[in-house]
Every structure is written in structure tokens, then in C-alpha cells.
Amino acid sequence: MKTPVRFVLAPMRLAPYHAGLVALCLCGAALARLSEPVAFYYGEARGAQGEILTGVFAGTVSVRVNGHECARAATGAYRTPTVNYILRVPLDDGWDTRCTPYAARVGEQLDARITYDGHEFDTVETLPPIGAPATLQQVDLQALPEPGLAAVATLAAATVLQRRLTRDRRVV
Q: SS3 letters for 29-64?
């Protein structure tokens, strides 16, 4: 059975439209400057006193680049025995201007923070610089106590110790 001519020619009439649509999509993708894949940081997050941030102590780990938060991860149940957070940091394409203010570039240093119990803390450790796309970097983090809270805790401990020593002297 022969195919009628009109069905064979119909797709050929749409070919210029398809070619134009494909060209438009390719040009749009070239100009969009989509971000590259992400870099990964993972590990175990701990609080200021060394408690593991899971269960009732669960919190978040966040990183900033140039003052903009670029990634945040909840701490919680262990994914493996030594991992309770995974950060996915979006990467910039490296052109003159950033595609977004929160995208990091390879080699940049990130500022890590841990938030739990309603407070945000800096970390004792510093994160290594951003690696190539899809780089996996394990970093165990611990919250650094705030200087004001550390001073109050130290004074409270000293007061308690002084009272015990005074009480012990009276007994003797």
C-alpha cells in the first residue's frame, strides 16, 4: 500500500520551525550560564560541649561564601556511623560575574556555622577550600562556644568551685 504524498510532505513543512526552535534553545542555554555541579562536604557535627547533634540536639550546618549563605543541611539521624550532615555547595561557572551571589567558585574559602538550641555558633575547624565539581570532602565540625557564654560558664564554674573550697575549709 502506498503512503499518500500529503503525509510525507507534512513533516517537511515543520522542519524549519523545528530547526528554529532548536537554535533558540541552544542560544538560550549558552547565555543562561547555569551553575556547574555541586561540591560536597560531609561529616559529623557536634555541639559546643562535644555532644553529637542528633535527636533532641539536632540542628543545622550552614556555609557562607562572601557573606551569602550558599548551603544548609540538617543534622540528624546518622547516614553512616560517622556522618550526620551532608552539604551540597552550588558552584559558579567562573566567568567574570557570578551567576548567583551564593554560588562558590573553585578554590574559595567557606565560612561554616552550626545552629542548634536557638543559637548560631562558629566552628572550631575551618573547611578546606572548594574543590573541583563533584568533589567529596569529609570534615567533622564542632561548634565554638560564644565568648560571652564561655565567660559566663567559666565564672559560674569558678564560683561553684570557690563555694566548695570555702565550705570544705569550714568543715575542716
A: HHHHCCCEEEEEEEECEECCCCCECCHHHCCEEEEE
**Backbone φ, ψ for residue 108 (5° rounding):** -75, 150
Q: Report the SS3 class of residue 73.
A: strand
Residue 80 lies in a domain: yes
Whole-angstrom distance, CA of residue 118 vs CA of residue 157: 23
The mean pLDDT of 92-100, rounded to a whole number, is 75
- What does the pLDDT look like over 5-27, one tens digit per residue? 554 445 555 556 656 666 665 65
Q: CA-CA distance, 114 to 61, in Å (whole number)?
A: 5
**What's the CATH number where 103 sits?**
2.60.40
Note the pTM of the prediction, 2 decimals: 0.62
Cα angle 145, 149, 154; round to 5: 100
33 phi/psi in degrees, rounded to 5: 55, 60
Is residue 31 over pLDDT 90? no
Residue 52 has pLDDT above 60, yes or no: yes
More confident residue, 170 or 135: 135
Range of the domain at 125: 34-152
Burial, 8: exposed, middle or buried (Cβ in 10 Å; 0-12, 13-18, 19+)?
Answer: exposed
